[in-house]
Amino acid sequence: MDRWEYQVVSIVAGADATARKLNELGQEGWELVTVWTALYYFKRPLKS
User: Fold this and answer.
1) pLDDT < 70 regions, the chain
2) CA dihedral 20, 23, 24, 26 (to 10 degrees)
3) Separation of alpha carbons 48 and 9, rounded Å
């Protein structure tokens, strides 16, 4: 069974800054799960 770690990030910025932050997190292996207002929920597989 896969194990995951989770992270919630609050991004309150303009479109360019938000895109930059989302791209940084994606490069680190985080997968966007959902967005609720300014809260962005991410997950990525735990490293064994």
Assistant:
1) none
2) 160
3) 24
